[in-house]
Specification:
alpha+beta; globular; 9 strands; Arc Repressor Mutant, subunit A; about 300 residues; 9 helices; single chain
Amino acid sequence: MLQPPTEDTHAHQALALIAQHRLLTTNQIHHMLTPDTPPRKIHKVLVPLREQGLTDQTALGKSGLQAHFLTPAGHQTVSDWPELRGRTSAPIPSPAAASLRAAHTLTGVRAHLAFLTQARTRGDEYHPLDWVPEVTHRLPDTGGEDRLIADAVLHYTATRPRRLQYRAFVEIDRATMSSERLARKLITYARFHAYTPQPIGRRGTVADQAAMLAWQRTYPRFPRILFILTGAPRPTLAHRITDLRHMTADHDLVRQLAAHVPLGAAILEDIETQGPHAKVWTPLAGSTEPRSWTQL
């Protein structure tokens, strides 16, 4: 008896990838979707999607590269797909708007591909949709920012030497903001780590101290925090990592966070060339000896 196929078509998978990651180059889609086929074959998947009005593309400066994004029609098409439930964002309105967000978005995808490439080599479980961009969590109304927006959350399962699940908040730094502002992101994470929501109109009581922390509603364990830096000379990036370590040492709430949550920073080009499991991560607390991201 014939059965319907259980695997999604390449067109379906490509739309899901573009929807979740917001913006992807042709090469990035090829690497995620069909890495073992000639690159030209991915065009047979992407061209019909554009002809059907489901995707559009924007040119990336003088590089000659094209980046693909969903049109409103494409966004509507994927809006109820189970693999994207709760993960889609507002559609990008135009090629010009796509071009303006390309640098940060595509830099994040580069980091994702470094994890994906090494996971495939190691036989670990980490798939193209296991990197979730722009994850938002609310923060207590105690001054400062009212929400945490992580550049991405990754979900990774190592299969050897024993099976272990890892989650990580990822911050992508292209050296476009001050080093102090980058380091202040650690305070935001520390506030989220300590945040216990209180019922509206009620002050905290002794009984409330045992209430569930906000992050426990989403994560069984607080994700480790990874800063991935690029966009400046190596000495500049090293100074920015040092500033992150200083924030960890000097701020009481961040120091408490570091006592429970692994924190680390690495240079993007290092994880691309050596892999994220290489000893390229600098811990943000304690020893400065480089290590793998899973050993922070």
